[in-house]
Amino acid sequence: xxxxxxxxxVAVREEQYPCSRIEAVPAPGADTDYARRVLWVHRxxxxxxxxxxxxxxxxxxxxxxxxxxxENVTHLPRARxxxxxxxxxxxxxxxxxxxxxxxxxxxxxxxxxxxxxxxG
Length: 120
What we know:
The protein is mainly beta. The chain contains 1 helix and 7 strands.
């Protein structure tokens, strides 16, 4: 169940993004670890800039994306950087996309369960 909270600019690192702040609450009976999520969705691009995930005990994780561009062949927005913070374990994961390739001619065997779980 989604609820539009308000229009709100969000600062991620050194960048400001125009966003709509949305609350997402699971439907009754849904099987999920989250009690609710708060999303900052870019007003002009189809991408979530920031996301806060809550369980029944409160804030659990935060995900942020920045250096967002549409400079690739798909013209879909992609973030160069992404950070996920786990507020309980005090850990964080940072990802940087150095290169992206699209429309690669990959064999179907690349996407078997074994390959996806264990890699080549």
